[in-house]
Specification:
12 strands; single chain; elongated; ten-stranded mixed β-sheet; alpha+beta; 419 residues
């Protein structure tokens, strides 16, 4: 176990050096310690991270140093730039780029900077204090692996805040550039907005998408302008499929029927298709897409599956929040809160990509899952177990994170052997 712990620490050290490349040396040290400490402690609390370092320096001094480093303005941007540089080539033409708008509830917080009013997704949308978050996660339709790409915290009360649209477009632009235009954007009803469609349907740089409509949007069908919900209710849905969705620990069965219409958005020439799905709720579910549809069940079912894939990514967001106790975060400064989201992205990217998909590390991830001693059941989300396993390994074999310089190293080039 101690040998495995040492190899894992060296890999974390190298990866942290890569994602912090371009920062000053003190910031690089902080990123290295923070990523290691979060993986070990499963917490975003600075005191818990500090306790993992095996340092003779007082915990109070470590926390003060962490606070200074976490305040640095370039931290979030640097981590995202490096993660996207590594992730970009992994984005394929058909990869689903799932954008999710979430929140971090801080119901009892009073002194945190720029606290805003949010709808708590874990409390049936009740209004409370907190911050909004934007996440982008890549996923292939027939794979359980995920590709964390973007993670940002923001508040509408911050002085540099412009609009929610600006936040969404910034995420799309950065990921789109990193993937050289590859991928298909999948967004829930929050994506049904004119400014977003204008960017996605830009003639100079069009993007593929599947977006769920609210229903009150007007579409052009056979030369006539009509409301989407009206069109959906008159659409024939000759194909059927039964699906099971897990919610609150229960399995809910839906008997769906689906069909499609060819449409356009007013003001745009590009042909679009609306997939109409009955059986999921009282109203038809309407998915507007650039993916060409035709009278073929497999083609239509592929688009519907692509949207349903988004449901699984919600579990990914919950994983990040629950495993690392994000809603217990206690730093008061807005810039520190934003930078912590960058560190969380690095932590999850390490587990999901560097530890999960690397051929050299596949054996290690197997050991880590065993170390978690988790009883697998339904629902099964392996990153919970992987997080538990990493923490268990470090707790059983405590030690210090290596301090060798790693700036600019390719995180794929560390050789790790197993005997």
């Amino acid at each position: 176990m101690s040998k495995l712990a040492g190899k894992l620490r060296r890999k974390i050290n190298q990866f942290s050096g890569y994602v912090s490349s371009g920062l000053d040396k003190t910031a690089q040290r902080f990123v290295r310690e923070a990523v290691y400490g979060m993986l070990c402690s499963q917490s975003v609390l600075l005191t818990e991270i500090g306790r993992t370092l095996q340092s003779t320096v007082s915990l109070k001094k470590i926390e003060e140093r962490f606070c200074r480093q976490l305040q640095k303005p370039k931290l979030w941007d640097c981590i995202h730039r490096q993660v996207l540089a590594d992730a970009g080539p992994r984005i394929g033409e058909d990869m689903l780029l799932i954008l999710d708008l979430s929140d971090i509830a801080k119901t009892y917080a009073k002194k945190m900077e720029y606290l805003a009013t949010v709808r708590d997704g874990s409390a049936d949308g009740e209004l409370t204090n907190g911050y909004w978050t934007t996440h982008v996660v890549g996923a292939d339709l027939d794979s359980t692996r995920v590709l964390p790409l973007y993670q940002e915290l923001y508040s509408q009360k911050a002085p540099d805040f412009k609009s929610e649209n600006t936040q969404i477009l910034a995420a799309i632009d950065r990921v789109h550039a990193a993937g050289d235009g590859r991928g298909i954007w999948v967004i829930d009803r929050g994506g049904d907005r004119n400014v977003l469609f204008d960017r996605l349907l830009d003639k100079q740089d069009p993007k593929e998408f599947i977006i769920r409509l609210v229903g009150d949007r007007h579409l052009l069908h056979k030369g006539a302008k009509r409301e989407a919900l009206e069109l959906a209710r008159g659409c024939k849905t000759p194909y059927s499929q039964t699906i099971v969705k897990k919610k609150d620990g229960r399995e809910i069965t839906y008997d769906l029927t689906f069909g499609y219409l060819r449409v356009r958005l007013p003001g745009h020439e590009q042909p679009l298709w609306m997939l109409v799905v009955n059986g999921y709720g009282e109203k038809p579910m309407m998915l507007l897409t650039t993916q060409p549809l035709r009278r073929n069940r497999t083609v239509l079912w592929t688009v519907l599956r692509s949207y349903i894939k988004r449901w699984g990514i919600e579990q990914t967001i919950r994983f990040v929040k629950q495993c690392y106790d994000v809603e217990n975060i206690r730093v008061l400064s807005y810039s520190r809160l934003r930078n912590m989201m960058g560190l969380l992205l690095a932590v999850f990217y390490f587990m999901a990509v560097k530890l999960d998909t690397s051929a050299k590390l596949s054996i290690m991830s197997g050991y880590i899952l065993k170390a978690a001693k988790r009883v697998f059941g339904v629902p099964d989300f392996k990153y919970y177990a992987m997080s538990d396993g990493i923490s268990a390994i470090f707790r059983r074999s405590p030690g210090k994170i290596p301090t060798s310089p790693t700036e600019g190293l390719d995180p794929n080039q560390l050789g790790i052997g197993f005997t």
